[in-house]
Amino acid sequence: MSNSTNSILFRGITLLLGLVLCLALLPRAAAADDWESFLDGVEHLQQLAEEHAGEPGKEALLLTVNYLRAVRYADMEWDLVLGAADEEFAALVGSRAPELADLQRVKLLTLPQGQPIDAIHLIAALAGSYQQAGMLCGWGGDCMQLAEQFRGQAEDTEGYYALMQPVFGGEENASLFPESDLLADLDGMVLGATLQPEDDLAQHLRTYYAAVTDASRAEAFIQAQLGGADTGDRAALYTALESALLDDDGMKLFLMLRGHADLNEDNAVVLDGAIDSGMRAAARLLADWLADALNGAVVSPPAADQTHEENSTSQVPASSPAAPSGEAPDVLSGQQARWLAFVLLGGAAALLLIALAAALGGRRR
């Protein structure tokens, strides 16, 4: 075997070993323990917030959620709803626990039930709901973004519905309303509505996700947003969600700021026709998801004596049967990791085969 053949073979084997080592060191696909690590970080962050504020309570809670959303959701509109992120607190975190800054860039995590969720999107929706703006900071904003994505591609609500249906609540990057955002919006509305100022945010999340199902989150969301509904009556559910979305004062203001609405001579907000139809279609797709999760069951309003304080344990009701998207995830999904492993190992195997072929050729010579 010639020296050049030996060199090729050695390099091929070295590269293969190196690739195997790289695979061993790759970030793990988002899994339940990544979710737990995120919650541990949130718990530590809130402890620092309580120390900075001097006591547990609303100030410490808002310090926590505003720190978490400060990188990905930093527009003026978010500051108007949630208050500006506190620079002094950020400096304290940077000096005492700089590793917590990684929490601000987390995107996709896997819930204990195996579903993907955009963790910071969840925090932003939760914070908005806590501040009585759950629609604007959650599902309403995403319905608007989906309408913007498909604007001008259909003639009416039915047309937009048909275009959006294949991608609504689906895989990442298929649309601006993937499953990870959908779950964040639904859960954020419920979690924010039941959150108390003195609550441990991480424990609030743990308690909710210990037993949540699609049916329970659908029921709890309907109770928080609509009070109650017969999900077997699709037409009525469509109307209820469309009205909740398009009649909301916060949404009207936001749509005007985005250039999608204006005032007429009677000072009534008039929506751009394409955005109006697109948002109605998105609301109907959400209604379909809720109805399917509940198998068309009737959702009763919460009991009259059920107060906000009594809900603070984050338990969802017993159920009947059943910014910007487009940012790259900071962790690899399971599918991405498998594909990367396949490509790397396939390339390494090809190089090794080339080296062996060269070695055999050298022997023939």
Could you explain the architecture of this structure?
- This protein has helices at 3-25, 32-53, 58-69, 76-82, 87-96, 119-130, 134-137, 139-149, 157-164, 179-194, 201-209, 214-225, 234-246, 249-257, 273-293, 334-364; strands at 108-110, 116-118, 229-230, 261-263, 269-271, 298-299.
- The protein is mainly α and 365 residues long.
- Strand 4 (261-263) and strand 5 form a beta hairpin.
- Helix 2 (32-53) packs antiparallel against helix 11, helix 3 packs antiparallel against helix 6 and helix 9 crosses helix 15.
- The relative contact order is 0.15.
- The model is unreliable at 12-32 and 307-365 (pLDDT under 50).
Question: What is this entry, summarized?
Answer:
Helices cover 60% and strands 4% of the residues. It is mainly alpha-helical and 365 residues long. A hairpin with a 5-residue loop joins β1 (108-110) and β2 (116-118).
Features:
365 residues; mainly alpha; two-stranded antiparallel ribbon; disordered C terminus
Distance between the termini: 9 Å
Unreliable runs: 12-32, 307-365
What is the 3D shape?
globular
**Percentage of residues in helical conformation:** 55-70%
**Overall pLDDT:** 81
- The Cα radius of gyration reads 25 Å
Number of strands: 6
How do the strands line up in the largest sheet?
A: 1-2
What structural category do the secondary elements indicate? mainly alpha
Encode the helix/strand succession as letters: HHHHHEEHHHHHHHEHHEEHEH
Work out the helix count. Answer: 16
Strand content: under 5%
How would you classify the quaternary structure?
Answer: single chain
Largest β sheet strand count, sense and barrel closure: 2 strands, antiparallel
